[in-house]
Amino acid sequence: MRVFDAVETNVMNNPGHGLHREMRIGNSMLMIGETGDQKTGLMNRPVAFHIFVADVDATFARAIAVGGTSMGDPEDRPYGERSGFVRDAYGNHWYIATVTSQEAAGRAQRTVVPYLHARDVASYMDFLARAFGAIEEERHEQAPGLIPYARVRIGDAPIEFGTTDPMPGAYFMYVADPDAVYEQALAAGATSLSAPADRPTGRIAFVEDPIGNHWYIARPM
Known about the structure:
Blueprint: E1 7-14, E2 18-25, E3 28-34, E4 48-52, H1 56-65, E5 69-76, E6 81-87, E7 93-99, H2 102-105, E8 112-118, H3 121-132, E9 135-140, E10 149-154, E11 157-163, E12 170-174, H4 178-188, E13 191-199, E14 202-208, E15 214-220
Parallel strand pairs: 4-7, 8-11, 12-15
Antiparallel strand pairs: 1-2, 2-3, 4-8, 5-6, 6-7, 9-10, 10-11, 13-14, 14-15
Helix pairs in contact: 3-4
C-alpha cells in the first residue's frame, strides 16, 4: 500500500483457508490469501509482476525503503522503458517500469501484469492457448529456446513471460462456463485440484498447470 498506492477493496474470512484480501493498484486487482495456521496446508507462493508507474525512480526508492531488495536499479532499457527490479519481503518480484517509447506504451494498458517464468516459454504458451484460449501478441526470441520476453492475452487480461526457472503462483480467472474451461484445461494437460463446485462466491474449479501454477476458474455468483 505504501509503495504502489494500493487500496484494499475487500477482506473476508475463507473458512479453512484463512483471510482473503483483494487490493486495487491502478486499474488492476490482486488477491492475497493470508493465514497463520500451518494446518491449512497453504504455502507462500511468490510470483512476479510487471507494474507500470508514473515515476519509476520514486516508486523504486519507496520499495527499498520499506524492506525491498534491489534486483537491478532503475535504468533506461532498450525495450522502451525506464525500469528497476525489486524483490519484496515475501519473495515476490516487482518489475517497476515507466514507459519511455510509443512502442512500449501498448504494454502498459494494465497497471499490473503477471510475469510468468518458464524454462520452455513456447511450450507453455501453447498450453495456455489450448487450455484457456490465450492469443499470442508478442514474442522475442534471442536463440532457439531462449525467449526473454513474450506476451499473450486471455480474454481482456495480458500475461507476460520470460525464459527462466518457474515461480509457481496462483491466478484467478473469470469465465462464462467454468465447467467447460475446466475440462478444456484438463485436456490440454492440466491436473485437477478440485472439480467445479458452487461455492459462497461463485462456481469455481481449481487446476494445476504443467509448470506448477494454480488456476482458479470461476464464474461469480
